[in-house]
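To: structure subgroup
Subject: Chain for Friday's discussion

All,

I'm putting the inputs and outputs inline so they're searchable in the archive.
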Amino acid sequence: MNNLKPNISNIISIESVNEACDKNYEDMMLKYYQLQFGWFHNAYNAFKDIDKYVILAYLVNKTLSFYNKHFFNVSFDEFYSNKSLEIEKISISEIVRELKLSKETARRKLNELTRDGIIVRDKKKITIQSNAFTYQKPIISIQNFSNLLSTSSKYLKINNNFKSQNSEYFEKQIKKNYTHYWNDFLNFQIELILRFKDIFLNYENVMVFCICLLNQAYNMKNSDQKIEAQNTNLMHDMYTNTITRYTLENSKGLNPTTIAELTGIPRASVIRKLNELMKLNYIILNSDKLYTTCSAKKGSNGFKKLTKFFVSNQPYIRGIIKDFFNYTII
């Protein structure tokens, strides 16, 4: 029998990931924005209620955690071939605490999921029904996350024989080891979106802001702008300054109708969310009556707050990239 053991010298360090991401910063951030907007788009359009979707994702992740705890590694196809998924006993107070919801909101959302046949509840026992997979099956998120991993691997240096991997490679690895790998991703994602909710007040505000930022990232990608800095904090500061300045100078923001079409949020709600974001100084209306994210000159208080927030998220993003590199490459 072969005695297989990991080669410790091949472990990919966070320093290697930081170097790879900094050398590929614009593309890496574009893929990251695509990942986050895609996740929120799916979350909103599942129920027109992101809080409800987050509860469902949390419940699914409890099942993934159970599989990991008992050393079961189940593929993507095997996992979603189940007719139902039984969750270990869970209380409303746990959901309230973990997802930062009020008790009334958590109870109401669980009642709605029960009424719609998404889950079945028997006291503290919850069973997820197979029709929940229609809403939760993360096909697009796996593709987008695989794109982020592939883009980040382009400048990764481990040894002279290392070659970057394409997105299909990462997607195949994630689906093969789904219950283990996606448990880690959802732990990362749920923690991150709760941080977003804290600063943006609600998830719909995040979604509207994200599509404006993603639009600007596409604008800058097509402009041949290049960002170079000595460290990650300066890199992101220069990136956010450049992306907002370029957009303002070229007047390529979005109008409420386009935002509504791209997000699926009704136009009247989009306008309300844009007004909320403008009060927070996160979004501005330019001279062409188009909405963009704030800049260092316009909405400077919001700009400083957002820049600090996005810089603080970098360790989370790069940490999950490092973990998946170590899962899939070495």
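Points worth raising on Friday:
The beta strands are 84-87, 119-122, 125-129, 283-285, 291-293.
Residues 14 and 319 are 7 Å apart (CA to CA).

D.
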